[in-house]
Design brief:
The structure holds two protein chains of two kinds. Chain A is an alpha/beta fold. In chain A, 38% of the residues lie in helices and 22% in strands. Chain A contains 14 helices and twelve strands. Chain A has an eight-stranded mixed β-sheet, sandwiched between helices. Chain B folds into two domains: 71 residues, no CATH class; 233 residues, MetI-like (MetI-like fold, Orthogonal Bundle). A two-stranded antiparallel ribbon of chain B has the order 1-2. In chain B, α6 crosses α8, α7 crosses α8 and α10 runs antiparallel to α13. Classes of the chains: A alpha/beta, B mainly alpha. At the A-B interface, α3, α5 and α8 of A face α9 and α10 of B.
Chain lengths: 334, 328
């Protein structure tokens, strides 16, 4: 019993996602491992193309071909789910893992009423009668803060504003109480004024329903407010992962440091924002050694030909040779 | 909704008025009916008498007014060639064409839509590939070749199906149908398939292309992420979203099938409107030509109206445009 209790809700082990192309295989995600505990919010940040969304899609089994999981494991509640047959995985989707996509305007089928989409999802994963499912759908709409849900349930997506649609999407993702929600940039397509509302709602509902969240975003502000832990991805690998205050206040990887420096602050002098020189390499041009080496301000010889793995540094784990050296030094000193 | 229908009906009336004007002008500018009716060697008095009787000496607007008035009562005048009222001729021929078109449209939809869905979902299966290859034949071979080949195979070599005419028709008063007897069906089968083949391949390719498009959309991805059954996703969410273009094309196609099934009707000696029209052209039978024109315009108008109403039924976004909801 204790064993199961201590086991994290989701374990991702050495995940590697490949895209076979005519010019050879592209490795989009390489050796990514992390856990999400029951009820925990894990923020995943990184630039576009860092592999955040692919990681999310592969957990729920919706990688689009030709992309495929080349190796590694995804384990939910102690059960390996990355190699399940389609029908079994279908039961996991929606029932155990819910997903919220980026754009609420395109996430809902324009030809079906909101209620029909909710009821359909509820009935797919439960034996509720039409009436009971409808009652549940109305409850859910109320829960996500849609006014007069009894009227709104029969309306179509185009009759809802963007923020309201994202609420509907969240209701859809939560409607059968999944243990894990993967939210892939749930606020990127929304007005700034609405983003905070949606994030607050998502956080509140997930804690009420006891669902863990994998929150994929570019927005460090959102992470700081919402996440318990944060994973920083760069060029398909994890650069750093740790408790949110640790990563934000004491960023260890030079890339994380750069990311934090590029957040504008309201207080303080109006200086130029810190930029990370250059841009993330394409998948075809990932350099030897550490993928960040062309842009890293602290680069040294070892970074050019050896790829660092995640190692514990303080309360975080970091993939950077800087800390390996320090550890060696402190090790020899002691 | 009502306002929409009224608006469309008004448009339809305008269209019909213009078509009536054109078909009326046929009488004035395509040959001289008096010449056609009396022949070259008639006397001037005879001609003048006939002119007076046909109302050709009245002012043009008055003539047009009479023409429209008569047409509204279903009176399109006498056929020059057969000397019978045109509306009678049409009433005899029209059911044949409508039945032929209806059967072939149903065939095309019944096979085209599922085939389109299948080839859209299983892009790389051998069946999809062969269906697509064969469908190229359906699209590129002219109808008469297909018709003649079918006659050769099923009529001549195998002797399974009759090759011409409607066979046993059952008279239902105003409507003669060949769909109530087995023999009638054996007659309609080949021409209907011939006519359906092009539509079928068109619909299949259209549905396939639309399915490929729709399956890439976010709402299909989201439907999968919610764990919905494949059947619900493919035949519910996806297929319904492909319907609008399919309805559009099908409407246009049925219209042109009605108007231009001439070739198929000729190949199978099908006693329909097309044959009547062809003979009408050969003999410069203007009342037949002009009433055919009006009738086809009427069909197109009715079909377009139906198509618009179907859009309404399929797409809720059109239904509530006037409802000032919280859009964006």
């Amino acid at each position: 019993m204790a064993d199961i209790k201590n086991r994290p809700l989701l374990e991702v082990r050495d995940l590697r996602i490949e895209f076979p192309t005519r010019r050879g295989t592209l490795v989009a995600v390489d050796g990514v491992s992390f856990d999400i505990a029951e009820g925990e919010v894990l923020g995943v940040v990184g630039e576009s193309g860092a592999g955040k969304s692919l990681t999310g899609a592969s957990i729920i089994g919706l990688l689009e071909p030709p992309g495929r999981i080349a190796s590694g494991q995804v384990i939910l509640n102690g059960r390996r789910i990355d190699n399940l047959p389609y029908e079994e995985m279908r039961h996991v989707r929606g029932h155990d893992i819910g997903m919220v996509f980026q754009d609420p305007l395109t996430s809902l089928n324009p030809l079906y009423s909101v209620g029909r989409q909710l009821i359909e999802t509820i009935q797919t994963h439960s034996d509720l009668s039409d009436q009971a499912a409808r009652k549940r759908a109305i409850e859910l709409l109320g829960e996500v803060g849609i006014p007069s849900p009894k009227v709104r349930i029969d309306q179509y997506p185009h009759q809802f504003s963007g923020g309201m649609r994202q609420r509907v999407v969240i209701a859809l993702a939560l409607c059968v109480n999944p243990r894990l929600i993967i939210a892939d940039e749930p606020t990127t397509a929304l007005d700034v004024s609405i983003q905070a509302q949606i994030i607050t709602l998502l956080k509140r509902l997930c804690s009420e329903h006891g669902a863990a969240v994998m929150l994929i975003t570019h927005d460090m502000g959102v992470i700081a407010e919402t996440a318990n832990r944060v994973a920083v991805m760069y060029a398909g690998r994890l650069a750093e992962i740790g408790p949110v205050d640790e990563v934000i206040k004491r960023a260890k990887h030079p890339y994380t440091d750069g990311l934090m420096g590029s957040i504008p602050k309201l207080s303080g002098a109006t200086e130029r924002l810190v930029q990370i020189e250059g841009s993330m390499p394409r998948l075809t041009e990932i350099p030897n050694g550490c993928a960040f080496n062309p842009r890293c301000p602290k680069v040294f010889a070892r970074c050019m030909d050896e790829r660092p793995d995640l190692t514990h540094v303080g309360r975080s784990e970091v993939a950077c040779w800087l800390y390996d050296q320090q550890m060696e030094r402190t090790g020899s000193d002691g | 909704m009502l306002a929409f229908i009224v608006q469309r009906l008004l448009q339809a009336i305008v269209v019909m008025f213009v078509v009536a004007l054109i078909s009326f002008s046929l009488f004035r500018y395509v040959g001289d009916p008096v010449n056609n009716m009396l022949g070259q060697d008639s006397s001037t008095e005879q001609r003048e008498l006939l002119r007076e009787r046909l109302g050709l000496n009245d002012p043009v607007p008055v003539q047009f007014f009479h023409y429209v008035g008569n047409a509204l009562q279903g009176d399109f005048g006498l056929s020059y060639r057969m000397g019978k009222p045109v509306d009678e001729l049409i009433a005899k021929r029209l059911p044949a064409t409508i039945e032929l078109v209806a059967v072939s449209a149903v065939l095309a939809l019944l096979f085209g839509v599922p085939m389109g869905v299948y080839t859209g979902l299983n892009r790389n299966s051998w069946l999809s590939r062969s269906l697509l290859t064969v469908s190229l034949v359906g699209i590129s071979l002219p109808t008469f070749v297909i018709g003649i080949l079918m006659i050769l195979v099923f009529g001549v070599w195998l002797g399974w199906l009759p090759t011409f005419g409607r066979g046993g028709v059952v008279d239902l008063g105003v409507w003669q149908t060949s769909l109530l007897t087995l023999q009638g069906w054996s007659h309609i089968l080949m021409p209907a398939i011939t006519l359906a083949l092009f539509q079928l391949t068109l619909i299949m390719r259209l549905v396939r292309a639309e399915m490929l498009e729709v399956l890439r959309t976010d709402y299909i991805k989201f439907a999968r992420a919610r764990g919905l059954r494949n059947q619900a996703i493919n035949y519910g969410h996806a297929l319904k979203n492909t319907l609008v273009p399919v309805i559009t094309i099908m409407g246009l196609q049925i219209g042109s099938l009605l108007a231009f099934s001439i070739i198929t009707e000729t190949v199978f000696a099908w006693p329909g409107m097309g044959l009547l029209f062809l003979q009408g052209i050969q003999f410069v039978d203007i009342p037949v030509m002009s009433s055919y024109l009006v009738l086809m315009a009427l069909f197109f108008v009715i079909i377009n109206l139906t198509v618009d109403l179907l859009y309404y039924a399929v797409d809720p976004r059109l239904r509530s445009q006037h409802v000032g909801g919280a859009a964006h």
